[in-house]
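Quick start: what a row looks like.
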Amino acid sequence: TARTFKEYMHDVFSSATPAICFHLHVSLPRTIVIGQPIQLLVVLTYDPASTAVAPPRFTIRVPSVRLKAETVIRATQSGLIGLRDQVRDTTTPFVLPSVWAHKSESLDSDKGKHPPSSPSATLPSTQEIDIIPSEPLEIHATTPPYVPLAPTFHSFSIVNTHYLRATVEVTAAGKTFTHDFYSRNVAVLPARSRGQAPPPASAQSAS
């Protein structure tokens, strides 16, 4: 029998392709000490609303971890209605070297569960690896000790603040998804001398 126009349009605009749904959760630090390593945690969860028969293989890479300084200088400038504040921003991004950090004993104790491409040692986070749903991945990034990076501070006319941005790429079923995760108002502290106690740790999560 001939199809109706409604049936034809339904076949054209509907798709039986299985849908893959997942959520990516990234935990970024809120406090950074110049010259000290920082930790990022990545967790991917598979959404049961997916219509795929089975979860696909997920791979992940982090093209860049950037720390950006924003300096605001307030000065007076003549305007149409008298003196007014002028705000000038200067920003400097720093690319932080980062690696995948895994404990080899956790991989060895559960052989067969992790795909062969999952590393048992540190690899650059720019390298694509497998990520198992609901299992955290750890990233270690470092801030070079000698960079023209001023710590966070506030004064009468100058405010120097920072934020951290991690770009994450996830690939599944031949499709790549890219997203930027931010940690704003990051406190960047000056380099510590040997034996000085570390600052209290804190983190900001983003999804």
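That is the whole record. The first strand starts at residue 22 and ends at 29. Residues 5-13 form the longest helix (9 residues).
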